[in-house]
User: Fold this.
Amino acid sequence: MRTQAPGTFIIGSFGRHLQARVFVSTIKIIYRLVALFVIISAFGFIQDGCLTTAYATHPRYTEHDLPGHPEHAGRIRAVWRQLEELGLAARMKAVEVHPAYRDLLLTVHMPQYLDILAWIEGTQHRIVHLDADTYACPTSYEVAQLAAGGIVGAINEVLGGRADNGLAVVRPPGHHALPNHAMGFCLLGNIAIGARYAQRAHGISRVLIVDFDVHHGNGTEAMFYDDDTVLFVSTHQSPFYPGTGHISDTGTGKGRGYTINIPLSAGHGDSSYARIFEEVVWPAARRFQPELILVSAGFDAHWADPLAQMRLSLTGYDHITRELIKMASELCGGKIVFVMEGGYHLDALSHGWRNIAHALLGDQEISDPLGPPQDGRQEPNVRPVIEQTRKIHGL
Ligand SMILES: [Zn+2]
Assistant:
């Protein structure tokens, strides 16, 4: 006698036919569910494919100010306007910015120097001059801590997997600040603090810092000169302020070879920079295999900048920006954060940051209302400095 499960009424050939139809229908339903799942997953993947860019900035960055000084609060206002009017700010992920804490600052600065900055905070002086061209007002230390904190915030988003890449529109700038004193408009070594934070909080071993500000990033160099975990690469006008960044300065101790200085005579522009990135920065980065790229982005190598004599255009800047993004994509999963340093022509600065935002978001758009330099002069020959740098560093 055949046993029948409760609720089963399928008997004989009709029953088998019905069973087959039920089976086919079930398969169809499963097939449709799988197809639906694949479509939903694909949509999710496409959504993930849109780049999330972390945008770190803070309204208090305008509180450090000295009207008439080249590094004034109007610089960052110009950048904000450009990013906001075009809706770029709204397309990025706003980073909550907190002041960088003292223990983190102490990874690159001396305690006595931080005590001086804290003392200025408590005085009633309107402006204190820390060197020939660096000022501080009572709020400056707090603002500088927020500037370093902006970079830390952007790095947290990128290394925490909540953003693909990031930009930190901050001031005062940082790449001239030395372990024990302020210098060249800079109070705290923002990008250096960010690199140390990435290493300590996220266990990153190797950070590449590329500094394309027209001035040598002597502060950043000093903070990692004996360190083989941070590769510092700088292009800068030379001879020029601050007088450092010689091609033969390559690091010391275990840091030997981890500082790459590319000093350039005045007048180099788009084609020189493109060659340098192709023939020096790319091979150095590939050899180093960074886990994170930080960029000291200064727009004072633009031909219109009032403080320097280089001849990059916004299009040339955009090219090296996109090369760096490609580099991050090839070497470290796209993890890159651009950090604001110099740039004293407001249109060059603000359109430069607009282009960085476009490039990070994956847009093709480039804005270059200033165009190429109008004087028709030839760029100096860049080959000798490229050959010499490659020889010194075995590239
Ligand atoms: Zn500069």
Observations:
- Residues 213-215, 298, 300, 341-342 surround zinc ion (CB under 6 Å).
- The first strand starts at residue 53 and ends at 56.
